[in-house]
Design goal:
Length: about 350
């Protein structure tokens, strides 16, 4: 019988030790790179910005995080094609009690990569502790805070009495019509027996977290002016652009009156009606831009309004109709909002 080659045995032993050491180092490295910050970064690196949010990848990642915590059930609902909603549940010891619902949205607003210091989906973590990513604050941090809180509580053996649900909804940034709006009207929502719900709020620059019992009402306002078109060399009253610019000036004065209250410390940002212009649309198109010697027959502007919970929506519409877009100047307006009247839950 042939005797084993001692050199072969030594080589095999060294190889085994090397592979074991490499595996241990890899496990240590993976553990070191699996912490609340890196888990947050991985979520931020998923592009869920409109107009093509990657909901599938986001939900898959969140399910993997829930599974890594353990004890969390998950269900994916779809009330509109291509608009999935993820529902996570941490069962409580008494399922007969009204549950707690924590909400966060999956989507984010578009990003302009060329305008960023770091790529918007790189989740770059700088030396001073900042993380640069689209959706970091609005509001992927909320979802990860929910999960990290549960992770910590479970690691300490805590079991909630009430069931805790986390809803991760699509399309919040474009109104929520295909996400949360349909979810709250569904049988699945009714079965949750929600007694208390918490959603995103205003960002806090410090360690204090404020809880709000109401929210401002978003209005998408379009103001349109029509007028007699004409040659650019002619001066005359009532052109579409002239009427629209007058309205823009009036809206700007109202905006400044509200903003002055905030700057003077007399009101919080959430206590005033905010108005922000978002677009202007007018002109006769040409191959290289616009025809510069023609006054257009139509002009339009868009504004993002946020009404306070105590603002009278009918009074706001009266102001728009009589001051911002009066018919006497051949103007009209359109308001789009999911909620026209808000009923506050007083604490």
């Amino acid at each position: 019988m042939a005797r084993p080659n001692p050199h072969s045995i030594l080589s095999l032993t060294l190889l085994t030790l090397f592979l074991s050491f490499t595996t241990i180092l890899s496990a240590i490295h993976e553990k070191q790179n699996d912490n609340p910050i890196t888990r947050f970064q991985r979520y931020l690196q998923i592009n869920t910005a409109h107009p093509t949010p990657d909901y599938t990848a986001a939900i898959s990642y969140l399910i993997s995080q829930a599974n890594s915590i353990g004890g969390i059930l998950h269900k994916t609902l779809e009330f509109s094609p291509g608009k999935p909603l993820l529902l996570l549940t941490w069962p409580g010891s008494d399922s007969s009690l009204p549950s707690i619902l924590l909400n966060s949205h999956l989507d984010s607003v578009p990003a302009e990569p060329s305008k960023w210091l770091h790529p918007p989906f790189s989740a770059t973590h700088t030396s001073d502790g900042d993380i640069f990513a689209r959706g970091a604050q609005d509001d992927k941090c909320i979802a990860m805070q929910y999960l990290e809180a549960i992770r910590n509580l479970r690691s300490n053996g805590f079991v909630p009495v009430r069931s805790v649900h986390i809803s991760l909804v699509p399309d919040e940034e474009i109104g929520g019509f295909t996400g949360a709006a349909k979810f709250v009207e569904s049988k699945e929502f009714e079965e949750l027996n929600v007694g208390f719900a918490l959603d995103e709020g205003q960002a806090s620059p410090g360690d204090q977290f404020r809880v709000f019992y109401s929210d401002r009402i978003p209005w998408n306002l379009k103001i349109k002016a029509v007028g007699r078109p004409g040659h650019g060399s002619t001066l005359y009253d009532g052109s579409a652009m002239e009427s629209l610019m007058k309205s823009v000036e009036i809206v700007s004065r109202f905006r400044e009156s509200q903003f002055e209250l905030v700057k003077a410390g007399k009101a919080l940002n959430s206590e005033v009606v905010s108005v922000n212009p978002v677009y202007l649309k007018a002109g006769v198109a040409a191959q290289d831009g616009f025809v510069m010697n023609v006054q257009p027959s139509e002009a339009e502007a868009g504004f993002d309004l946020r009404l306070t919970p105590t603002t009278d929506p009918e009074e706001m519409k009266r102001r728009i109709a009589t001051e911002w877009a009066p018919p006497v100047r051949n103007m009209s307006y359109e308001v789009r909002s999911l909620i026209m009247n808000l009923h506050m839950t007083m604490l």
